[in-house]
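U., I forgot to send this yesterday:
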Amino acid sequence: MANFQYKTSSDGAYADVSATAYYGTYSGTLEVKYPEANERDGLGRPCAAIGQPVIIMQSSLMTHDGVSFWEGLFATTTATYVELWLKVYNARDGLWTAYHGYLSRPKWNRMIIGNGNSMTYYYDVEISMQTVA
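Result:
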């Protein structure tokens, strides 16, 4: 995923996302999800999708270093989101595309604390970026 990149300001330069921050996506996902159409036209075809796309990254397993990468983007420990620019593969057009939005803190279902940071594991991690434009 050499093209999976981020930047923290509009005038900043893109940098590669740390490999530890997405290792688990090989059995998970990194995708741009578009809103589903919630209505039908007169011929029964889907229409009227409302909203903006969301970037979802799901990882079955992530190390402490991976979670720390994402947590490190937040200015304070109490911040719930951070403005971010991500380059993500868009399956609709088959291109790596730059998106701007608000990244939420990582969520996980289970954490096993190990001996030292590199031995701490997070299971079923989900990271999302809302208000994508």
